[in-house]
Amino acid sequence: MACYPCTWQVPMLSLLAHILLLASSSVSIYHVNDDLSVLLSFKYYIKNDPGQALSSWDATDNGTNNLSTDFCRWNGIACNDHRHPGRVTAIRLRGSDLGGTISPHIGTLPVDIGRLRSLQVLDLSHNRFEGQIPQSLGNITGLSKLCISNNYLNGTIPTSLGKLRALASMDISCNFLSGRIPQEILSIPALTILLKLSNNALSGSIPTQIGHLNNLIAIDLSMNKLTGEIPDDIGSCVQLQLLHLQGNILQGKLPKGLEKLGVLENLDLSRNNLIGPIPEFLERIKTLNHLNLSFNNLSGPVPDTGIFCNATILSLTGNSMLCGGPPFLQFPSCASVHSQHRMHLLIVFCIPGTLIFLLFSITTYCCIKRRVKPNIVYQENLFLSEAHERISYNQLRSATQSFSPANLIGSGSFGNVYIGTFIIDENLATVAIKVINLNLRGASRSFLTECNALRRIRHRNLVKVITVCSGLDHNGDEFKALVLEFICNGSLDEWLHPNTMENSMTAKRLSLMRRLCIALDVAVALEYLHHNIEPPIVHSDIKPSNILLDDDLVAHVTDFGLAKIMYAEVWNKNHGDNESSSLAVKGTIGYVPPGQLLLLFKLELFLVHFNGFFLL
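Now predict its structure.
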């Protein structure tokens, strides 16, 4: 059902206050002038009446002296109570576009609400009333029809409405009500005509007490946010002719209780998440002349008799797993659907297995390719040789703009790393210049250790050393620096833990396969250091910040400041003195090899330890 907004607004509680004050007075409850005065007060606070709905509300007696009964002829007012003649029994202001302010009489509402014993019909639908439905409305025990639909009411449905034991019809649809459906209103014995709560924002499940409405003709709970399953107790509503539950989030199968609804004419369960087959008993309900089960997740064969043979009163679209049925439904045959289901199962199981096999195969291939590729050890010295060009302090200072902070790209264990540009072998080259901070304890030893380690090695996964600079700076202080190959893509740490301030569009990402290749690169580099040169070299500080990535995201191990050279006596006996950058335990926490804590451990043990922690 569509909801039609109107033009003006008035708080619902204010309007009900005036209605409920029809009996409020200091004189007898049956004094008709009380109704007149309250109606006039109600009109006074209606400031917007564009349709002149209250134009007939005039207390002028014109000399007839019939002030007490004239209001019974006013628009929207009915006085048909034979027990109390002249009393207001119905107020019908449907679609009047009324608007106004909150009445000052609202404070008397709790006191006088129980005095409207004669009011039987309250129809305020299709207006712009706002606010909440007052709990005190439940004291109008003689009310038989309540219609406040198509307004702007909010809040929850008051449980006090369950006290309206004479209520036969309730329509509070097309509002902004929320919360659960109160169980109390589902136990009103006189509710036999209509229960319409559609087009709100009601949530929760449908209470099982709905089965108490065994004489009700129509239930409309559509276009809400109801969840859970349709209760089987719905089958107790044996007089039900209309059941609308469409546009919710209902789940589960169609309840078997629907079979008991022998006089059901209109059933709409569309646009939910219902599953399972269409029950065959639906084709046996002879009175059913409208069935809408579209846009659910129903499956299985469609019955082909009864209502299912009439295309004009049946809708099953949006259920892709249905099959069979009459030809006009255009569902596939059930045999082909079963075949497709088996194919889906085959795909579900085969695709993950194939992906796992491919991943294992690629990993194995990469490992084998890395192992069979010869690890070439170049014998010529890379620096400290006569053939290699020497670089002075002034050249480094000029290349780094006097070691400007703008050229600073990182920090190592014993110094800072700058980016610089100068001519090497008649070519303009960009290099990384690691300046040793000689004020740090062990820095000189670290520099010598790194020189001794790097002068004998060359490998594609190790950062190349171009040359060194050892001399005095412009202040006459000792100066030592390493000139290294510049790796443009930064460290692995920057890729794994990007700066949170970076733009999300440029944040660095590494796929699972790329991470695996990087781990293999590091493993190959460590294998080279441990097994392919003598004496072996132990890096001692493998961590993501010491792994650099080039243009192709190939890993290069750097920073040998804490490296250990395992001389023959250590290599053979696994203990004794050895050259190291420090006699104390050093390295990053989490990467310190057990060999530094207990030299009696075999070399192989802490080599595995190195790589294992890095992979973690």
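The chain is about 20% helix and 20% strand.
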